[in-house]
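Protein Record: Sequence and Backbone Structure Tokens
======================================================
Tokens: labelled as protein backbone structure tokens, with as many entries as the chain has residues.
Question of interest: how does this chain fold, as expressed in backbone structure tokens?

___
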Amino acid sequence: MYRFLLSRQWAILTLVALLLIPTMIRLGIWQMHRYEERTARNQLVSNALNADPVPVERLTSPGHTVTTDERYRRVTAKGRFDTDEEVVVRRRTNSDDEVGYHVLTPFVLTDGKVMLVNRGWIPANEPSQTAFPKIPAPPGGQVTVTGRLMPDETTAASGIKNLKGLPDRQIMLINSEQEAQRLDAQVLGGYIAQTAPEPKGDTPELIGRPGDEDAALNYAYAIQWWLFSAGVPIGWVVLVRRELRERREAEAEQAAAESEPAPV
């Protein structure tokens, strides 16, 4: 009764089922690896955000590359804002996905070195993007700034092209090496996303905290793929039993037809 399994149709169906099972198992393992990676990154970010702030000079220096462990670390800096050398970063969005600028202001530390401070987002309300926007002034004189330490932006990491020929005092990427050349100063690696002091009038709009990656979704996908892999042999058995039942019913009908007396 099971000789039909040797037919071409059933041989192909069985082969496909045998290939699907390990493929789905591997996809589930890959999704579990993604879950573990995202969980680890979430924990790393959480640890950085919840750590006590330290002076920025402890974590970075001129030419330093901010590492993954240092990213989002809370830091403080003492000095003064240099608004004469302030620039804006084009094509940046706020929490409502409105396009505008990030305000990047050099912050001169007490030892003369410079730390780049991203003071937040402002809208692009000017009729032309070639004009330098109006920016609320930061606190004057000596001030202590608190923020999250961020690595230099690159095209490879962000996907943002570093366009040339931009209007005066406008840039595409926040990069300490490029700003060091422009300012002709010792600029600490990376930059600070300011969190305090809060600006008067809520502008510039401070950069929000980074959100968690959805690691739970990868976990759910892993379970889903493994359930699919378990369902393949079950489905194969169901199809075989249905085929067997239909063949038996067809044979029974044929036998009943042959046993009926011939008409006179």
